[in-house]
Amino acid sequence: MYDVIVVGSGPTGLILSGELRLHGVHVLVLDKEAEPTRQSRAQGLHVRSIEVMAQRGLLERFLGLGQQIAVGGFFAGLAKAWPERLDTAHSYVLAIPQQVTERLLTEHATEVGTEIRRGCEVVGLSQDEDGVTVELADGEELRARYVVGCDGGRSAVRKLLGVACPGEPSRVETLLGEMELTVAQEELTAVMTEVRKTQLRFGAMPLGDGVFRVIVPAEGVAEDRSTAPTLDEFKEQLRAIAGTDFGAHSPRWLSRFGDATRQAERYRVDRVFLAGDAAHIHPPTGGQGLNLGIQDAFNLGWKLAAAVAGWAPEGLLDSYHAERHPVATDVLDNTRAQIQLMSTEPGAQAVRRLLAELVEFDDVNRYLIEKITAISVRYDFGEGDERLGRRMRDLELKQGRLYERMHEGRGLLLDQTGRLSVEGWADRVDHVVEVCEELDVPAVLLRPDGHVSWIGEDQRELLAHLPTWFGAATG
């Protein structure tokens, strides 16, 4: 029997498997596709996902293959400069194709001992008090203590669980693909500049060697969006929107996406969980989808590992839904808003002009960017200091940086008093005694995902709080 079976080998499933393996959990990743996808629908990592990579010592391999950019326009394409003084040591977006992200995460998952099996389609799911039985299309049955569905918007796990995913169907559709263009760059730039005055769902980004990532509004909504558009359909829409097809030819891949917005009612059904697009479906505006899934996995991984190890306190697994469901609800709302702001309808354009005025205020611009990049997320840990429930940025310590101390996925007590102790929890919580000029409180207790769970200097208060997230003391 496996400890955990993860269904889906996209970024969400790979991050989750890596988190579980940090704690010695026996993990199997299943994916119905025989080979990794060649498509790179997502094109970058936002600040919080960059921080996730830094917290686990993975960031350098990503920086080597991506491009750091700090430009505005991430909220509905509103042209405003990247805000200054964001609450992060990583104030940029990392432009990196999803295909590369998945390759790097696969390498990491394999390095730490994850078993990945491709060409394995899940067609059945049943659970009892001891575990979950997963049935594959070839008739094989597998057992695990827990299962996590990270298998995308059309999640088989979600459907087999019977979890409702209410919301709205697609009202508009967009074509996306990578192809070669023969038009001169000067003409392409001139046409794009003119068309994007009204059509914000249009663009062509050079990828090198004459290949471009092209996006254009579709004529309508296809009955079956799983069927890729043809090159002729793509060229027809380019001519309709831009007046030219730019000499498009030799497509690498073509796809379509809509603006359907749906969310699973429950992220947990007993021993089975949902994460990433299996739990929430929304338009890609703002580039939040891949990042939201990575952050789901980062929240769930250490909690599931605690349950496998036997020290998870009561309610820890339920806190996954309690914390992540509201975050996705907020993302769904802001993507709905962005789609409206990108409409060519007069009313929507009037609202867009008004918001364009508002983002000239630095506080408004910062608020929207913090929302898109997920660094404003605060879990509800009750009343107290406003930093409770928020993630701690990567502080500079006298010896190295904070995130360098979190590579093992354990809790961390950053103690400036030198008087505190985590005796009884030392197998789950690291104790770092060090004065930090950037920290204006005596001590902070961080969960393995970097969120602040306690602030103070009283040992008795600390001892009363540790069991909330780290279970009973040992010894």
Automatic annotation (TrEMBL):
<feature type="domain" description="FAD-binding">
    <location>
        <begin position="2"/>
        <end position="335"/>
    </location>
</feature>
<keyword id="KW-0274">FAD</keyword>
<dbReference type="InterPro" id="IPR036188">
    <property type="entry name" value="FAD/NAD-bd_sf"/>
</dbReference>
<keyword id="KW-0285">Flavoprotein</keyword>
<dbReference type="Pfam" id="PF01494">
    <property type="entry name" value="FAD_binding_3"/>
</dbReference>
<dbReference type="InterPro" id="IPR050641">
    <property type="entry name" value="RIFMO-like"/>
</dbReference>
<keyword id="KW-0503">Monooxygenase</keyword>
<keyword id="KW-0560">Oxidoreductase</keyword>
<dbReference type="Pfam" id="PF21274">
    <property type="entry name" value="Rng_hyd_C"/>
</dbReference>
<protein>
    <submittedName>
        <fullName>Rifampin monooxygenase</fullName>
    </submittedName>
</protein>
<dbReference type="InterPro" id="IPR002938">
    <property type="entry name" value="FAD-bd"/>
</dbReference>
<dbReference type="GO" id="GO:0004497">
    <property type="term" value="F:monooxygenase activity"/>
</dbReference>
